[in-house]
Amino acid sequence: MLDKAAIEKIIPHRDPFLLVDRIVQMEAGKKAVGEKSVHEEEWYLAGHFPQRPVMPGVLIIEALAQTGAIALLAEEEGDHYLPFFAGLDKVRFRHPVFPGDTMRLEVEITQRRTTFGKGEGRAYVGERLVAQAQLMFALVDR
User: Fold this and answer.
1) Would you say domain 4-141 falls under CATH 3.10.129.10?
2) pTM of the model
3) How confident is the model at residue 130 (pLDDT cuts 50, 70, 90)?
4) Residues whose CB is less than 8 angstroms from the CB of residue 126 and which lie 6 or more positions away in sequence, other chains included
5) Is a pLDDT exceeding 80 seen at residue 76?
6) Where are the domains of the chain?
7) Which residue, 25, 48, 113, 135, is the most exposed by fewest CB within 10 angstroms?
8) What is the set of active-site residues?
9) What residues contact 88, with CB distance under 8 A and at least 6 apart?
């Protein structure tokens, strides 16, 4: 298991934009399973939406992308690259994510080249699929 301190050694994201609390399972270069607990005091919930706070879909996808970047960069050569989004396909939002929910973020890397990666991401709350996407990464020299 990786905590936030260990995650910060792999990817450059920091609070308030680090959207993965922990990695609970990983096979470097192949897959990662992370978790994000959504708390009432999250910075984005005050305005989205004041009467019924919901985690924005784009941030759910960002959490999946960060999980995928952790899987890609956890390999030995990963510390040489910054991960950037290169594209998204087949994005679907299935159910809202509310304060108090803990998302399980599963990303399987389906393609990897030196400076490019592709993955399949799925976010769950409990057993309920809340979002899914095909993620593309550009790995740029630091």
Assistant:
1) yes
2) 0.96
3) very high
4) none
5) no
6) 4-141
7) 113
8) 48
9) 61, 133, 134, 135, 136
